From TrEMBL:
Residues 1461-1482 have a biased composition (Polar residues). It comes from Caldicellulosiruptor kronotskyensis (strain DSM 18902 / VKM B-2412 / 2002). Residues 1445-1456 have a biased composition (Low complexity). This is S-layer domain-containing protein. Residues 1616-1679, 1731-1789 form the SLH domain. Gene3D superfamilies: Immunoglobulins. Residues 1445-1482 are annotated as: Disordered. Pfam families: Big_4 (PF07532), RGI_lyase (PF18370), RGL11_C (PF21348), SLH (PF00395).
Length: 1789
């Protein structure tokens, strides 16, 4: 092996002497390790990383090369410096230290970046480094005493390879001579060699104790970092002599240059003065060493801001903590300050008073610094150079190569107000950087903002565009000033009194003036001025570089009385519940409001009246209503401006009681090694929480608890690994189950992984795999979670990058490590954090979770053999495997690795086997949308994906996939029904004018925010309602702060006393709120902080004792008013500085047993101590790593085992093992598993998406409600388990959803022989009914006078349908009536309140079918009672209808029990009413019905309860025609497909002939059309001896057949593909034809084909349009050439001017004609259509442009990806029908 170090040394020694590289004989060689003692070292062969610890965004992995040799691979990527550090347990202490290692520096992305290997001392001072420059084959160099991006002191080496070869390095530190020497050479060619001796350490500050070896990637601003550095054979040797004692050196001189004299105006505060002084200085020591950045503290002992004169400020150097530096000579910095009675006075303007003014230092130094302008990640400066003729001091604002637009803001201390506010200033807009190949130019703006936060005025400067004036959000004026590199005089006069804003812009070079005047009534402006901002606006892919200047800002006002009302304070939303306020007076609107007066004081003013501004108040209609409060006249205040209050009233639904499908889970029992014993904990289910459920615990058969346990955890201090623990579950004190587990010898569960094999991409680059995100689901239905692991290749990319990635791989594992299947996603899907979002959930309610992911051609599923992946066992393949990788750019393409086309699917896989269950074409594939529609042309914005599970009907889960959020934003929702994926809805900002664009996050959340029981999608600053429509956007309106794209999102219940869900997020755009908390239902902003920077991190968690959650984020670095602090949701500031408190900004979790949350970051758990305002690490997980780079999150955080606390899952460094860590800390709190909380469970489903975020619950937890928790009074949702093991005596449950359009829903309880029907016109979200048959009753007395049949039934309805009417059919056994007479049976319900049995009114007893039917609202326990045979008294009248002859007869008997009526064995029992036989309406002979046809009216013929035939007037021509209908039960020629709906019937007409269609109406049961079936009628063609389809239209619970001739008819239900031979389920038009046939628009051809690809003729188009829209015929035309079957339809089209005469032919319809026909019809139907502003390159005709624009607006048709429309392209039948269905949808809206 190449590991044999002595061999390497020997060969190197010989070669170096041969090549004359200055080597000396062994024994004098300073690099010979035999001259030293081994201090520490490794060759990595044990697989350990030897303590190399990666920071965020980095990784350290031991890998094996092709020779079997192991080495350390250190990698880093992202948008910051990345490091992997080895820290020695003790520092070196000897005078010589020799460090040997092998080094393979790989290429570093971009030339501006670099990587390095750094040796540093125990004070973290850099001693020596080797550097690899960025770019391909970047140079290698070295330096002493430096680190980071600055390479100015690096010396480069040109005698060794830079092409990623292994190099051998030897470094010797001589701390006596204070030098470092080193040599480096190619490992495979030692002739390539370099050495340097005696490099001086005296010129740096250092300690002679080496503590660290670091591998670092240094990232330059605006660049993305990717680097890999490999090291091997790292050994450290030392001498045996102690290092000399180092003495500190005195400072002898300050070498930094700084300003020594300042002039300030009288009154300047000392803090404002010191803000101009340097905060750190460079100094020289007595040994001539320069020490940089020594902190300085400034003071002046006699400063008096009110006294003119000179003041000496002294800067004391702070040297505490600086190694080897002292200041015995008391060297200080000094600055002389002169206070002068000078100030800048702007020109006077008649009628105005000056409020604020600055010339930025023309007269005297401007204070505060930069006149109070502040910025982040950009620079401010007072520029005194000549800028286009202006050489006076001016404000300069610069941002260079920034990845986001930066903001500089001046906020005025006192709000500016007045009858008029006049702002005068000079602005130099400045040239922005060119967009290059990017689609859009960058911009910059000058903005004015009022005290309400409204940007009411802005002047936009976009490169290559004229300056643009914008008032508010929508009023835009274009100027003709196109030159940004000149000065403009700006004058803005806000006439508050007359509500006018005037703007005057003057070009100072040409004196050209442009003026604009506009009413402020239409602008969001509160009449004040609070701040001025300069804002950079960056566009996609285009880092912004911009310098702009501002000068001579003068602000005036027209003074107003001090008691003038200038603003009415914002009122919080008023929330009430529906139907609690029948009129406005009952809402509880405030009677007084607080106003702000001109003098700055506050005053309460009465409200005279409230007026509604938006529609009318509806007590029963939920939503937001806007009310205007007119202020009552008050002589103490002046309301000249007519200010009024606005109050938004949210009429809110009560919290939903809907029941949801949820997975049943077993106990999840685990026993882990704790610090002092074994910790056992287990799961409590949600439906057990409110019950008397307790537990006993046993160790090795010995009971450990004296009394049953209510909590679900136990610490056994005497337990040992290997002990067997048993937990018994007791319900009401009775044991119902037991669970066992063996105690582990560690505090985690280990799951072995099967790491995928390395791969090689098309460019010949090798990649490896790392375990990444995980999710969980019960894949096999046994109540235990399985784990899905995503494997990312090492060359995975961010969407903003390019690269030929290896395929993403997914594995499914049981908790014992058994692999179930592996999915290779293939090469048509890029790998990276923003791709391959996946969902694991039970979507079809079978009790087993499915796996859903976006797929493409080549996605392949492999099975397993004996728990190991088996590549010979191919389970499923998506699409065409031959096209794997065919749709992505290769290494020489314009965007290597990017997928440019090809089909994209949403696929669902069986979770247990991996078999694909269904795939559906993805609506927003790049092939369909094109890349540019997403906002760029290089696949960055298009390749941003999201996914979630949501209960969109409130009952069962749906699938949601999103694409895009930087600009165009889309979502598609799918249901998985009867084995098929069905699109539920889609959302596309492009279809609604761009509303919601750019508001999405790198993540999303799901919750029912509006209490309708159905989930909403919280996509960041955009919230979609459950129907796919926008619920609200954070648009700056209606009390909502303006939002933007963001990186972090937290959604949950954050208040103990505020019902509902709240949303906390941070935002990327500097001009909007950096940290913002809002109400989840309305978007009402509750708190917001502005740091004016890209804020990438933020957390909301309950970490302090105050009631309510806290939140914090990466806002301002210092100012608590700008987001630097820790904030309670009620507004209290917990800490001024979250960074100083050490709070991580990552995950929050429940770990230690209290009701507060801990914080998880990287591999450590933190606890905030509010008493010290500090954060402590309470647990670090060893030998594992976090994932996703700087995000540093676990593979998964979730409550997947044990009690309600959360587990965290990490991979080991070598990716061969997953570890599930669970707490071993006892807790006193009994809480059900968080996985049964809907918000939390769905949070686990989406946690793996893009930028992972922690889950939250739908209910509040905190120590402030500990009494609530201890008393088991947390809210808990009613849930339904599809997979719960059901015992014989347990109820049978059904969960259902019913839309308002469904007339009823039937529920069949097969095991209990009960059918329940709910029939109404209401929507029912999450109804649950349970039924249980009882043979005996315990503790319930039977009714007197009746005998029991032992037939009992219990019906329990969920709370949300408790009072809803239900029809029940209860089947009883005639052989089990306990001797009761079957004709005496009656049903009673037990009233538990009165403890009495009550007769159920309206019941029907069918003794023929043994069914008792009744209608009831109550539910509860029902019993069937009767009497045993005995002499009866009273009178019974029984009407019997003979089922054969249907004739009637009557009998009389006696009874004492009411009246009874029997028909066909049916007894309807009523109380207190006499039933008379109804007259027979229609009789028939056998199975034949005949009726005389009245040709002047509709003739209805009722064949039976299912079939009715209607003959319209004049439909039959003849002399006394008669219709005869006959049931043909034995007919042999039946339709051979599908399920028979009705047996064949024959319809014949005697004495007449059918002239126009007669209608056959057939009732259908809902189950008839399950599984995507259609109902179609057929008529038998006696000539061809074939069944021919007839036009069939489906209504809610019937179908109507249109017959144009008599004959034999049959109706069947079947799948479309079973009936028509040329349409398959995977055809894109399958669902379209399904809809068209169901709507009665098409029938298909007699040969049972649909001919979807046949070009459609005018005749066919006319007939189909006529059926769809039923136009009236206004005149006759001469259409002799038109065939009879199309003549009527063509005549209608021509007479209504839809067609012209030329269309009355058998010609082919073109695309432009098709859309023209449909748009004309829609307009004739009264639809008002505003054209969409859309352009196609081949549409130049004005008429065509209008028609296409309207059709595009309605979604009837889109263009092609190349920007064309192809107007003359012939239309196929499928295309025409698809357009038609979309057109019909517009009418239905």
């Amino acid at each position: 092996m190449r590991k044999i170090y002595a061999f390497v040394v020997l060969i190197s020694f010989l070669l170096f002497n041969i090549f004359g590289n200055g080597f000396v004989a062994k024994g004098n060689n300073i690099f010979d390790p035999s001259n030293y003692v081994l201090f520490d070292g490794t060759n990595f062969e044990d697989g350990s990383t030897w303590g190399f610890t990666p920071g965020g965004g980095a990784s350290a992995t031991v890998v094996t090369d092709v020779y079997g040799n192991k080495y350390l691979e250190a990698k880093g990527s992202g948008s910051g410096t990345r490091s992997i550090v080895k820290t020695f347990s003790t520092s070196t202490t000897k005078d010589k230290v020799l460090i040997l290692f092998d080094w393979q520096p790989m290429d570093v992305s971009t030339a501006a970046n670099n990587s390095e290997v750094l040796i540093s001392d125990e004070n973290n001072n850099p001693l020596f480094r080797l550097v690899k420059k960025g770019g391909t084959n970047g140079a290698i160099g070295y330096s002493v005493g430096t680190t980071g991006l600055d390479l100015s002191k690096v010396t480069y080496i040109n005698t060794i390879d830079t092409s990623q070869k292994w190099l051998t390095v030897r470094i010797l530190f001589d701390f006596v001579a204070e030098t470092v020497s080193f040599e480096i050479f190619n490992k495979d060619d030692p002739s390539k060699y370099f050495s340097a001796y005696g490099l001086d350490l005296k010129n740096i500050v250092y300690l002679n104790k080496i503590k660290k070896i670091s591998i670092i990637g240094n990232r330059a601003s605006g660049n993305t970092l990717n680097f890999t550095t490999n090291v091997d054979n790292v050994y450290i040797y030392t001498s045996t002599t102690d290092a000399p004692i180092q003495g500190s050196k005195n400072i002898v001189e300050i070498v930094s240059s700084y300003t020594y004299n300042y002039d300030f105006p009288l009154g300047t505060s000392i803090n404002d003065i010191i803000s101009f002084f340097p905060t750190a200085l460079n100094v020289k020591l007595e040994n001539n060493v320069i020490v940089n950045n020594v902190p300085v503290s400034w003071s002046c002992y006699n400063y008096n801001p009110g006294q003119e004169g000179n003041y000496l400020f002294v800067g004391n150097l702070i040297i505490d903590g600086i190694t080897g530096v002292k200041n015995d000579y008391n060297i200080t910095a000094q600055i002389n300050v002169r206070l002068l009675n000078l100030s800048f006075v702007p020109p006077q303007i008649p009628g105005y008073e000056i409020v604020y003014a600055t010339d930025f230092g023309d007269t005297i130094t401007v204070v505060p610094k930069y006149w109070g302008f502040t910025t982040q990640n950009a620079t401010l400066n007072i520029n005194t150079y000549d800028i286009k003729g202006n050489s006076t001091p001016k404000l300069e604002f610069t941002q260079v190569n920034q990845t986001g637009g930066r903001v500089a803001t001046k906020t005025f201390g006192e709000t500016i107000k007045g009858d008029a506010i006049l702002v005068k200033m000079n602005w130099y807009p400045g040239l922005l950087n060119d967009k290059g190949s990017n689609p859009y130019e960058n911009g910059g703006e000058l903005r004015l903002i009022d005290s309400s936060g409204n940007v009411f005025w802005k002047l936009n400067n976009t490169r290559n565009s004229p300056l643009q004036l914008i008032l508010g959000n929508s009023v835009v004026f274009n100027t003709y000033f196109t030159e940004p590199e000149k000065w403009y005089d700006i004058e803005i006069n806000c006439d508050v009194l007359n509500k006018v804003i005037s703007t005057k812009i003057t070009d100072t070079e040409t004196s050209t003036v442009i003026e604009f005047t506009y009413s402020s009534d239409n602008v969001a402006f509160d009449g004040t001025l609070k701040s001025i901002s300069l804002v950079g606006i960056r566009t996609s892919g285009n880092n912004i570089t911009w310098t702009t200047y501002l000068d001579n800002v003068w602000i005036y006002n027209k003074p107003i009385p001090p008691n003038r009302i200038i603003n009415v304070d914002k009122l919080p939303y008023k929330t009430i519940y529906v139907n609690t306020a029948q009129d406005i007076s009952q809402i509880g609107l405030p009677t007084r409001v607080t106003v702000t007066l001109a003098n700055g004081t506050k005053k309460e003013v009465e409200i005279a009246k409230w007026e509604i501004l938006s529609g009318q108040w509806s007590a029963d209609k939920p939503g937001i209503y806007t009310f205007k409060g007119v202020l009552k006249e008050d002589s103490s205040v002046d309301n000249t401006y007519g200010k009024y209050a606005i109050c938004y009233v949210y009429n809110r639904l009560q919290p939903s009681k809907a029941v949801r499908q949820m997975e049943w889970l077993n106990r999840g029992l685990i026993a882990l090694k704790a610090e002092n014993g074994i910790f056992i904990n287990w799961r409590l289910l949600a439906d057990e929480y409110k019950k008397d459920v307790k537990f006993n615990i046993y160790r090795n058969g010995q009971k450990l608890n004296t009394a049953p346990l209510s909590v679900t955890n136990y610490l056994d201090v005497n337990g040992n690994p290997g002990d067997e623990y048993k937990v018994e579950t007791l319900v009401n004190g009775i044991k119902i189950e037991e669970t066992k587990v063996k105690a582990l010898d560690k505090d985690y569960i280990s799951i072995p992984l099967q790491k995928p094999e390395d791969g090689v991409n098309e460019a010949g680059e090798t990649y490896t795999y790392e375990a990444n995100d995980c999710s969980v689901g019960d894949l096999d239905g046994d109540g235990e979670y399985e784990i899905i692991v995503k494997w990312l290749p090492s060359n995975a990319i961010d969407s903003s990058q390019t690269g030929l990635t290896g395929p993403t791989i997914f594995d499914a594992y049981k908790l014992d490590g058994t692999l179930l299947w592996r999915i290779n996603m293939g090469l048509n899907l890029t790998s990276g954090a923003h791709y391959n979002q996946f969902l694991v959930y039970d979507f079809d309610g079978d009790g087993k979770s499915e796996f859903v992911v976006k797929t493409a051609d080549g996605t392949t599923v492999y099975g397993a053999t004996y728990g190991r992946v088996d590549y010979n066992k191919v389970i499923s393949v998506i699409g065409d495997p031959a096209k794997n990788g065919a749709y992505r750019y290769g290494p020489n393409g314009p965007f290597p690795g990017k997928v440019w086309g090809g089909p994209e699917y949403i696929s669902i896989f069986d979770g247990e086997t991996g078999a694909v269950l269904d795939s559906i074409e993805y609506r927003y594939s790049i092939e369909k949308t094109g890349v540019a529609s997403w906002g760029d042309t290089w696949f960055n914005r298009s390749d941003r994906f999201l996914a979630a599970v949501a209960y969109l009907n409130g009952t069962t889960p749906s699938i949601v996939f999103g694409r895009g959020y930087y600009a165009r934003t889309t979502f598609v929702a799918y249901d998985f029904v009867n084995g098929k994926l069905q699109e539920r809805w889609h959302f596309d900002t492009q279809e609604i004018g761009g509303k919601g664009e750019g508001m999405g996050n790198h993540n999303l959340s799901v919750a029912d925010v509006d209490n309708d029981g159905c989930d909403e999608i919280i996509a960041g600053s955009l919230t979609l309602d459950h129907d796919g429509k926008i619920l609200y956007v954070m648009d700056g309106e209606m009390g909502r702060e303006l939002g933007s794209h963001g990186d972090a999102l937290h959604v949950g219940a954050f208040f103990p006393d505020r019902e509902g869900i709240q949303v906390f997020g941070v935002h990327e755009v500097p001009a909007v709120a950096s940290l913002e908390l809002h109400d989840g239902a309305t978007g009402e902003t509750l708190q917001a902080y502005f740091a004016y920077k890209d804020t990438g991190r933020g957390v909301c968690a309950n970490i302090a004792s105050e009631p309510g959650y806290e939140f914090w984020g990466a806002g301002d670095f210092y100012d608590v008013n700008k987001g630097a602090g820790i904030y309670n949701v009620y507004g209290k500031i917990i800490s001024n500085d979250c960074r100083a408190a050490g709070l991580p900004m990552n995950f929050a979790l429940y770990w230690d047993g209290d009701l507060m949350q801990e914080l998880l970051d990287d591999v450590s758990i933190f606890k905030y101590d509010e008493t010290r305002d500090k954060t402590d690490i309470i647990r670090t997980f060893e030998d594992v790593k976090s994932i996703n780079g700087t995000k540093a999150n676990p593979c998964l955080q979730a409550d997947i085992l044990g009690d309600w606390r959360e587990e965290v899952i990490y991979p080991t460094f070598d990716n061969t093992e997953l570890r599930i860590y669970s707490t071993t800390i006892p807790t006193q709190y009994r809480i059900y598993t968080l996985m049964h909380d809907p918000v939390y469970r769905l949070g686990i489903a989406w946690q793996n998406v893009a930028y992972n975020q922690p889950p939250h619950t739908s209910f509040y937890l905190g120590e402030d409600i500990r009494d609530v928790v201890l008393s088991n009074n947390l809210p808990v949702k009613d849930i339904f388990y599809p997979n719960k093991p059901r015992k014989a005596d347990e109820p049978e449950e059904k969960l259902f959803y019913k839309s308002s359009s469904e007339s009823k829903v039937d529920l069949y309880f097969e095991n209990n022989k009960v059918k329940i029907t709910i029939e109404n016109d209401e929507e029912i979200v999450g109804g649950k009914i349970s039924v249980r048959r009882l043979s005996t009753l315990n503790g319930i007395q039977l009714p007197s006078g009746l005998d029991t049949t032992n037939n009992y039934m219990e019906i329990i309805k969920s709370e949300n349908i408790r009072n809803m009417l239900m029809k029940v059919e209860f089947t009883f056994s005639p052989n089990n009536l306990n001797g009761c007479d079957i004709n005496s049976l009656k049903l009673y319900r037990y009233n538990s309140t009165t403890a009495k049995w009550e007769f159920v009114n309206g019941q029907v007893v069918d003794t023929m079918k043994n069914i008792i039917s009744f209608v009831d609202t109550e539910g509860g326990i029902y019993g069937v009672f009767g009497t045993k045979p005995a002499t009866s008294s009273g009178v019974v009248t029984t009407i019997i209808l003979n089922p054969q002859s249907q004739t009637t007869s009557s009998t009389t008997g006696t009874s004492s029990k009411g009246q009874e009526k029997t028909q066909q064995g049916i007894t309807q029992v009523t109380q207190g009413e006499t039933q008379q036989p109804k007259p027979q309406i229609q009789t028939s002979e056998k199975n034949i019905v005949t009726a005389k046809i009245d040709t002047n009216t509709v003739t209805n013929v009722q064949l039976n309860s299912q079939v009715k035939i209607s003959v319209p007037p004049q439909a039959v021509e003849g002399n006394n025609p008669v219709i005869k209908v006959e049931t043909l039960g034995s007919y042999t020629e039946k339709v051979k497909v599908g399920t028979t709906v009705i047996e064949p019937i024959n319809i014949s007409i005697e004495n007449g002939k059918i002239q126009k269609s007669i209608v056959v109406e057939v009732k259908i049961a809902p189950e008839t059309i399950k599984n995507d079936k259609v109902v179609i009628g057929f008529i038998f063609d006696s000539m061809s001896k074939k069944w021919v389809p007839v036009l069939t239209k489906k209504n809610i619970n019937t179908v109507q057949l249109e017959l144009n001739k008599a004959g034999t008819v049959q109706v069947v239900a079947a799948k479309l593909s079973e009936i028509y031979s040329d349409i398959k389920e995977n055809n894109w038009a399958y669902n379209i034809f399904n809809q068209a046939i169901t709507k009665g628009i098409i029938t298909g051809y007699a040969d049972l084909t649909l001919k979807p690809e046949k070009q459609i003729t005018y005749y066919e188009a006319a007939v189909i349009l006529d059926r769809a829209f039923n136009l009236e015929k206004s005149s006759n035309s001469n259409l002799s050439e038109v065939p009879q079957w199309a003549k009527d339809a063509i005549m209608k089209m021509v007479s209504n001017e839809i067609f012209d005469e030329t269309n009355a032919s058998n010609g082919i319809v073109s695309r432009i004609e098709a859309v023209k026909f449909m748009v004309k019809i829609l307009e004739k139907k009264g639809l008002q259509i505003e054209p969409e502003d859309v352009k196609f390159k081949d549409i130049n005709n004005a008429e065509y442009t209008e028609i296409v624009s309207k059709a595009y607006k309605l979604g009837i048709v889109k263009g092609y990806p190349d920007g064309s429309f192809k107007p003359d392209k012939p239309v196929t039948r499928s295309e025409f029908v698809a357009m038609l269905i979309r057109a019909i949808e517009n009418i239905n809206k």
